[in-house]
Amino acid sequence: MQSRSVQALLATLWSSSCLAASSSKTPDFATSEAGNPFVDGWYADPDTQFYNGEYWVYPTASRPYDEQTYLDAFSSPDLVHWTKHSTILTADDFTWAHRAVWAPAPVYRNGTYYLYFGANDIQTDSELGGIGVGVAEKPEGPYRDPLGHPLIGAYHNGAQPIDQDVFVDDDGQAYIYYGGHSHANVAKLNDDMISLGTFDDGTTFKEITPENYVEGPQMLKRNGIYYLFWSEGGWGGPDYAVSYGMSSSPLGPFDRIAKILQQDEAVATGSGHNAVIQVPDTDIYYMLYHRHPLGSTNGNDRHLAYDRLYFSDDGTIEPVKMLVHDNFEDGDMIGWETYGGDWDAKTNALRGTASSGGLALLNTNFSDFIYEADVKISKKGNNNCVGYAGLFFRVSGPSSDDDSFKGYYAVISTSGSLVLGRTDATGVIVLGREEVGIESTEQHRIRVTADGSSIHVELKGERHAVISVKDDVYKSGMDGVRVFGIEAEFDNVNITRISSS
Ligand SMILES: *[C@@H]1O[C@H](CO)[C@@H](O)[C@H](O)[C@H]1NC(C)=O
Ligand SMILES: *[C@@H]1O[C@H](CO)[C@@H](O)[C@H](O)[C@H]1NC(C)=O
Ligand SMILES: *[C@@H]1O[C@H](CO)[C@@H](O)[C@H](O)[C@H]1NC(C)=O
């Protein structure tokens, strides 16, 4: 009996520690933990489903229309590690589709995976194309044509048949929301999911166009409220954005409440065409969207990102902040550009080696911010020269050829000091130095607070040190890290705007 109850106790402990382990995996992040963009490549118009314990993301391949003949997908168990699934659907399998395969909308029903997409970008009803549907036995396809023709192949209420989203309500009724050219429709889908139903008044298409609507509708139901999201502005430019409305009915009306996702001049532009990720059985939501890198002028230069979506107590949605964070847990350094040195993130930290200088920069442009990162000198150089590693900020003009860039730096050096300085083509100016006796292989968290002309550097932890100066030669620019003469590791990068005082 005694050993039995000990066994029972052990079993209880065992199972509760299992529970603890699994719940600690719940992705409860402020933004993409391993950085945005969270996957590599040019993609747009993402939609998502949770299939078989994994998050699936289905985007448009962001290329010239004639090259948009296929769809890729990505899956992840934790929103951090992503697996690419290439060519899950190809226009070759749809006799009527040949270009502009856009904005896939996934849904699972009754043993079948469905993927709705727009194709051919028709401008008139005399052209063949519109919204099609593919069916597959697995989330990764291959998706095949059950119809042999588009599901919606003509304009209704002025809505171009593109940009569909499919939503299944709690009562089992499925709806398709769609429409380009500034008109949005909703229609019922029959239980077979490949034919359209009718509303009580006998019509098939009901116009629900909200104020400012351009394209990209997306339906979410939460606590009995129907949220319609849509995109405004032009998809190729910086102003593309997401707004939303709320209704007690899936058919609206959806009065425009607010714009909740838009460009941030410090982070990215053209943030739009969203979907919403819900962590199953939680009230944790993420805004999933595409955006352009700062300064990019190619409309197809679109990348996938997600950030936290917070609801207020009254059910309205707070503006989404595009945050800058990377813990390199995906073993990747997507979004970082390097200038000299050897860099990788295979150890789940950003590791750089450079006999002379090496820079790794994020394409950000903050003016006033708090920038934190862990810095570790992991290997000293072979010669007796002093090496250093640390944070660089308000950087401009980086080049792979020389060190003529401009910016500020806050570094730790192999001679044991914390140094704040400014650099340009003519050399460096030391603004402050503290001897702190830093040893190699210690990890240090460096925190830079730059607010107008006041620049404050703090070395956190045991060897605590502070340098505060006034200097305003550089007012904004890129953020990143640099290594010189040694090998160093950087981790848990986090940059947050502060409003100027
Ligand atoms: C679900 O699939 C089964 C087998 O194909 C079919 O008999 C049944 O009618 C389907 N149910 C619905 C609601 O479509
Ligand atoms: C960065 O932002 C500042 C304003 O904060 C702007 O003047 C500057 O042109 C921007 N730099 C780039 C490279 O876009
Ligand atoms: C990032 O920095 C901000 C400001 O210091 C802080 O509020 C936030 O918690 C940090 N986030 C992470 C993930 O470290």
Describe the protein's architecture and organization:
The N and C termini lie far apart (70 Å). The protein has 1 helix and 31 strands. The protein has 501 residues and is mainly beta. Strands 19, 20, 21, 22, 23, 24, 25, 26, 27, 28, 29, 30 and 31 form a 13-stranded antiparallel beta sheet that branches. Strands 1-2-3-4 form a 4-stranded antiparallel beta sheet, with no helix packed on it. The N terminus is likely disordered. Bound molecules: 2-acetamido-2-deoxy-beta-D-glucopyranose (3 copies). The site of one 2-acetamido-2-deoxy-beta-D-glucopyranose has 4 residues, from loops. The site of one 2-acetamido-2-deoxy-beta-D-glucopyranose has 6 residues, from strand 23 and strand 31. It comes from Trichoderma semiorbis. This is 3-keto-alpha-glucoside-1,2-lyase/3-keto-2-hydroxy-glucal hydratase domain-containing protein.
Give a short synopsis of this structure.
The protein is 4% helix and 48% strand. The protein has one helix at 2-23, and strands spanning 43-51, 54-61, 70-76, 83-90, 102-109, 112-119, 130-136, 165-168, 174-178, 185-189, 206-207, 215-222, 225-232, 241-247, 255-261, 268-278, 285-293, 303-309, 324-326, 336-339, 342-344, 350-366, 369-379, 388-396, 406-413, 417-424, 427-435, 443-451, 454-459, 465-470, 477-497.
